[in-house]
Amino acid sequence: MPSSVVNHYLYFPKTEILRIIYQSGAIYDYYKVPAEISEKFKAARSKGQFLNYVIKPKFRFKKVK
Predict the structure, then answer these.
(1) Residue 63 CB burial class (10 angstroms; 0-12, 13-18, ≥19)
(2) How many helices (H) and strands (E) would you count in the chain?
(3) Do 20 and 9 contact (CB within 8 A), yes or no?
(4) pLDDT above 50 for 12
(5) Residue 3 pLDDT
(6) Domains of the chain: which residue ranges?
(7) Sheet holding 27-30: strands in order across?
(8) Burial class (CB within 10 angstroms; exposed 0-12, middle 13-18, buried 19+) of 30
(9) How confident is the model at residue 2 (pLDDT cuts 50, 70, 90)?
(10) What is the pLDDT of residue 1?
(11) CA–CA separation, 41 and 60 (whole Å)
(12) How far is it between the farthest Cα atoms of the chain?
């Protein structure tokens, strides 16, 4: 299901970085995201809600672009 918030995402298992490319074009890296959380994000019906309630409050992040 397309997201109104998330355009694309990548997960780097070696570094546990979840990279989110937003519809706006902004890119953020979320650090130390376990593979299990990444899989739950991938399966989430609403990527935006999952980001807001699970990932953003618990994981440090930095704007890449």
Answers:
(1) exposed
(2) 2, 4
(3) yes
(4) yes
(5) 77
(6) 6-63
(7) 6-12, 17-22, 27-30, 61-63
(8) buried
(9) low
(10) 47
(11) 16
(12) 29
Alpha helices, DSSP H, located in 20-61: 35-43, 47-50
Torsion angle of C-alpha atoms 36, 9, 16, 54, degrees rounded to 10: -50
- Write the DSSP symbol of residue 5: S
Q: How far apart are CA 7 and CA 46, in angstroms?
A: 12
Q: Phi and psi (nearest 5°) for 24? A: -70, -15
Quote the pTM value. 0.91
Which pLDDT value is given to residue 4?
83
